[in-house]
Structure formats: C-alpha cells, structure tokens
Amino acid sequence: MSTVITATINGRTFKGEVEDNELLIDFLRDDLGLNGTRQSCEVEVCGSCTVLVDGLPVSSCCYLACDLDGKVVETIEGLVGTAFHEVLGDAFVRHGAVQCGYCTPAMVLTAKSFLDDERLADEESLKRAMRGNLCRCTGYRAILDALMDVMGSERAAEAGSGR
Amino acid sequence: MKLPPFEVHRPSSLYDASRLLRDLGGDGVPINGGTELLLAMKLGLAQYDHLVDLKRVPELRGVRPISTSVSIGAGMTHRELEGSPVIAEAVGEMPRMLAEVANVRVRSVGTIGGNLCFADPHSDPATFLSAVEATLVLGDGSTSRRVPVDQFFLGAYETVLEHGELLVEVTVPAVPVGTGIAHMRMKVHERPAVTVAAKVTLERDTIVRARLVVGSVCGAPVLPQAIDKLIGASRGTWSERVREVAAASAAAVAPVADAEGSSRYKQALVEVFVRRALDAALANASGFTR
C-alpha cells in the first residue's frame, strides 16, 4: 500500500507516492539521495539518523515516510550555505568537535532545534538537551565546548531562527 | 532493517478509529508516534497488516484544566506536555519527569497514551501516574469507562484495553498544598532500570497519607504495602520509618532480571530509590506546610 504525500524537504516541495511501510531514513537516502543522514543503531538510541520534522528532532530510522504529509523536513544538506551552518561549523572546527564525523550531522541538527532557546544557555541544560546523541570519538567535551561557545550568542539566535 | 508490508489507515474520529480496529480484529493495531510499535515491528517482535494511525483523531488532543485536575489527551506528545504551563501549574513534578523520558527524538513524536498502552515494563509515566492517582478514560467514541492507572496494567505489554477500545484521556489530580510528590529514576540506557514515585500528605507535621509506586523492575508498576508504616509518623520519627519502608519494599518486590540488571541488583536499587523518593516527597510536602 502507498500514500501520496506533499512535504517540504530542505526548502523544496516534494509531492509523490511513498510505500506505507517505508522508513524516513530510507526515503531520504535511497529515494532522494540525501546521504548525509546516517544509519547506525536502527533502534532510536544512537541519534545518528536525526533529522528535523517541523523543527523537532526525530529518529528517521523509526519514522514513517508517509507521516511526512504536510510537514517540513530539514536534513544536514539543507543547512549548507546557511548562517547557522557557518556559525556552528566554525565552532565545531575551532574546538575539534569532529573526528570521524559520523555523528556530526545529527549533533548539528539536534543543536539547531534548541540553540535559539535561552533557557539552555548553561552547560547542564545543554548536556540534557544533547543526551541521546552518541559520539565514539570525541568524548563529548569538544562538542559541548563548541556548542557552549555559540549558545545564547546573538549570532546563534539569528542563525537558528532564520536561514 | 526494513518494516514488513502493511497498510496505514487514518481515521478522523474516535468512533471511526475504534470501529476500524474492531473490524480489523487481530490484523490491526493502533499507532501514534510509533516509537515503540515500529521498533517492535522492525525487530520482528510484532506483525500487523493494518496500522490505524490515531494522529488525526481530535478527541485525543489537548490539555485542559478541570476544577482540581488536568485532563490530558492521550495523543499528546511528551514534548508538548513537557512545555505545558497548565500541567506545570497543577503537577510541577510531571514536566520534569517527562523531560527525561527516553531521548529528545522519542519525546518529539512519542505520546503519553502510546507509552501507557504499549505497557513496556520500563516506564516513567506509568510509575509516576500511578503514584499521583491519575485516572484513564477508555472509550470507543460511543461509550467510555474510567480506570485508575494502577489497575490499567495486567503485566508486561498487557493492559485491560478491550479490542477496539482506546485510551482517550489521562486525568491527573492537581497536587494540593501539604502534599509532596517525588519521582526518581536511574537509567543507563534509554529505558529506566528502576523508577520510584511517591506522594505524601502532611497535616501539622504528621504523615496522614502516603503512596508509593515502584516501577520498571517488574512486569508492571507495584505498590508496596509497606508504605502504610509511614502513616502517623511525625517529623521526628519519619526518617527512621522511611528506612524501614525502603527495606521492606525491596524485600517485597521480585524484580525481573534483564539488560538493565540482575534481580538482586535491582532489589538493592529499589531500597535506595524508595528512600530517596520518600525523603524528597516529604521535603516537597514540608515546603508547603502551613
């Protein structure tokens, strides 16, 4: 069985048919060729497959593509060239927050979902917000440092809400 | 991993959803956020030919204050409830409990009703809502009945829901002055290894009501009888009694060994977390005593 959906994916309208049992991650990677979304644990634990749906982080490994009807989806590819990407990308590089890079798209997208939220401008809140995104290289310190660097800054707020 | 083939149905009323599920019989299953069901289906632990999507059912949406309680639509996501000022006002501990469920992605799409109906033994909401004496409204669009949360679970992954009957609403009583609530959990992975929730009421520095729920260690939340030892205790004696209740509660539960730990280990956790939860609930209750 299949469903016709209309969704905005990285700013472009997608209208077409998807199989009812197709997972969002397979739709993005296999149908649309958006390979920046990483497949890893496949059970909603590691966070690698995170994308934003209507601004909220979801595990694309356990989300049905047919549920996208009327939704706005952002993947890491959609951030390229935006102010947010520039600000956060710069901070990640400065702090060495990337090693193998496998978790990075998900880290960046998760951060985007709350980086303009002033309530999270302290490290404890930030840790709570980022919990559930696993990184096996950096030990998290560098990632937290990069995020702390841009958290609450006006530049991040601007970059987070606009694009 | 791919999902086996199925058809998704999207009813737009409680009545239609219920009738559809009844017609489909064992081939159909309700789904909302899917954070539990899709996972189980991916892993081959469950298989259904028809998924009845409840996201378009308006009766399952919304948070409303009703005199001294809050009525929460079963289809509200953890994320929506975390940020609800109505809930924060009535039951301050509840948003804090929800903010630690699973992870941020599960909370974005997972619903309070889905969590309860899936009846995973490791559940913060199930434990918390039992402690605060929440009531569930079950219905099919034409009839409904009310069931206290602690009578909803029959065991692991099993509830009193009849086929075609749906969890519509969760009614949570507001916490009155002089009553303290505490929810404690320990989790290493996404699901808690132990969850303890307590509710105590003080009158002139004496405990007049006390309720204790131990979750995530057995098939369903358990309410240790030992909590009755706290009734009548006053400020001078309750810390000693809390220790007795903790020890007796740990002795009374028979935890299921799983990936979160052995039975004996969980028993040790229960003792520690019952003590902490009761201490915290008493501190919260004291803070508002006049």
Protein described:
The complex is a heterodimer of chains A (163) and B (290). Chain A has two domains: 2-75, Roll (Ubiquitin-like (UB roll)), CATH 3.10.20; 81-161, DNA polymerase, domain 1 (Orthogonal Bundle). Helix content of chain A is 38%, strand content 17%. Chain A has seven helices and five strands; from the N terminus they run ββαβββαααααα. Chain A has helices at residues 24-31, 76-79, 83-95, 104-114, 123-130, 141-150, 154-161; strands spanning 2-9, 12-19, 50-53, 56-59, 72-74. Chain A has a five-stranded mixed beta sheet with strand order 2-1-5-3-4. In chain A, α3 (83-95) packs across α6 and α3 packs across α7. Chain B has 290 residues and is of the alpha+beta class. Chain B contains ten helices and 13 strands. In chain B, a hairpin with a 2-residue loop joins β4 and β5 (69-73). Chain B is globular, with a radius of gyration of 19 Å. The chains are: A alpha+beta (163), B alpha+beta (290). The interface between A and B is medium-sized, with 31 and 29 residues.
What is this entry, summarized?
The complex is a heterodimer of chains A (163) and B (290). Chain A has 163 residues and is of the alpha+beta class.
Percent range of helical residues of chain A:
25-40%
Distance between the termini of chain B: 58 Å
Structural class of chain B: alpha+beta
- The number of helical runs of chain A is 7
Low-pLDDT sequence parts of chain A: none
Task: Outline the biggest β-sheet of chain B.
Answer: 5 strands, antiparallel
How do the SSEs of chain A run, as a string of H and E? EEHEEEHHHHHH
Annotated CATH topology of the largest domain in chain A? DNA polymerase, domain 1
The whole-number mean of residue pLDDT values of chain B reads 96
**Number of extended strands of chain B:** 13
Number of contiguous helices of chain B:
10
Task: Please name the defining characteristics of this protein.
heterodimer; A: 163 residues; alpha+beta; DNA polymerase, domain 1; five-stranded mixed beta sheet; 7 helices; 38% helix; 17% strand; B: alpha+beta; Uridine Diphospho-n-acetylenolpyruvylglucosamine Reductase, domain 3; Enolase-like, domain 1; 3 domains; five-stranded antiparallel beta sheet; three-stranded parallel beta sheet; 33% helix; globular
